[in-house]
């Protein structure tokens, strides 16, 4: 059975829904950003500050390649993972790509609760709403290449996981 790869902007619920989905499917759960921080022994915020976004994206590419080869895994990607076509090619090889979306105001509310976001903080220049809207628009076509999309704006993580699981069953991508 294929891996389930969750893509989408920060704050769309990839980690929350992914953990629930992995339990329901009996799959392992892996958060790409958390794996990067563990392997490189540095927070992503510190990577951006010390080495820049390019360094982080190189680390991300290496981690995606490593994780994409695993089986029976729900993989939660970072919001910008989709920017590299090689990442998406690797993830699609053995995975079903599910995009999670949310309204700008929902993303703002969700991301404000969790502290600093390097890409957003770097881009926003004081106007987080504008920064989110611009980043969303710049990645929209990349997210639209998913096999399935769920708008999480008004759904709980459990509802998102149920929706994804129903899709996977209909498509014959998983047995659960």
Q: Judging by the overall fold, what is the CATH architecture?
A: 3-Layer(aba) Sandwich
- The total of helices stands at 9
The CATH superfamily is P-loop containing nucleotide triphosphate hydrolases
Shape assignment: globular
CATH class: Alpha Beta
Structural class label: alpha/beta
* Proportion of beta-strand residues: 5-15%
Question: Mean pLDDT, rounded to whole units?
Answer: 90
Could you give the order of strands across the largest sheet? 2-3-1-4-5
Please compute the radius of gyration using only Cα atoms: 15 Å
Number of strands: 5
Q: First CA to last CA: what distance? A: 10 Å
Helix-residue proportion = 55-70%
- Helix and strand run: EHEHHHEHEHHHEH
Q: Which consecutive residue ranges, at least 5 long each, have pLDDT under 50?
A: none
The fold-level CATH name is Rossmann fold
The main sheet comes to: 5 strands, parallel
How many domains is the backbone divided into?
1
